[in-house]
Amino acid sequence: MDFSNEDRNLQIANYLQTLRLEQNLTLEQLSNLSQVPIVHLMSIEEGRFLRFDDFYLKMYLKRYTQSLDVDLEQLYTYASQQPLIDSSENAADMKNANERQMTETQASISATPKNIANTKPQRKKPTVKTANISRLEAKKKVGKFIIGLTFILLLLAIVIFMIIIIRGLGGSETPQTDQPPIDNPHNITPSTPDNDYTDEDIDEDTDEETEPETEPEPETTIELDSYTGGSQTFNVTTTLEEIEFIVEFSENCWLELRFNNTIITSGTYNTNTVLEEIAELVGDGSDILHLNVGNLRGIESINFNGVEVDFDGGHFVHRLYFNITLDSE
Question: Could you tell me which of 280, 317, 276 has the C-alpha nearest to residue 296?
Fold first, then answer.
């Protein structure tokens, strides 16, 4: 926009002042909205554009029109299409209007409390905003599209989450059919090694003095190593090359048994059911037996080679780890 024509500048200034007055805004209120000093607003409405540098003039005009919700380029086009008026008559009219406006502004400042003076006034929509309707409609369409897309993605995420939960529940509640129920699981005792003595050996030893029998040293020891959160870790030492693992259940309980990160069994065990498994040890102290339990309170007892594990059956415990070491000495 060329601002070298003073008559055209006066035409734009007159039009800006008309827009402001249509919205019932004082110069002080417009200054608060646009952050442009009142003295500059008065110079703009008087058409004295040449007193400003081009950069600051365009910036002030942009803030002025934005405060009135008017498009600046639309203003240039509208003003350029209007017939030029007599600058002397228009200048006198605008000067009188500004003097009246300044008198009203001073009276308003003195009569208005501080907490009310800065209140943003209600604006009337100017008549030149018709060109902005298409842009507002386009923004509304984009907003509706974004909202719809967000809703679809959220619904899809919920469906996927529900499918994962249903599959997880279906896998954890699979009944264990391979283990038949046992009427009295407490009668199970660990196997004892067979005696190699013959009747002849017994007859030969009857005449000899027999030394008093001593209690055999335990073949398997189990000690609690750590108890953190929902996990308990035990250290197991045994002289045998295998572990006979027995679990007795008192309630329905889902259990997954892993040995050296290989699943041995997984499923739901019923009341009065006994799980018996035998695991061959590696022998280098790296064997790990891992139990994932859905309801630890549903387990009556756990035994390794006839030695009962002293575990805490709390509600929040779901994992048991056994670090197994083969004692070859």
Answer: 317
Q: What is the pTM of this model?
A: 0.35
C-alpha–C-alpha distance, residues 210 and 30, integer Å:
117
Per-residue pLDDT reduced to its tens digit, 297-313: 889 899 988 899 988 87
Q: What is the mean pLDDT of residues 133-158?
A: 85
Mean pLDDT for all residues in the chain: 77
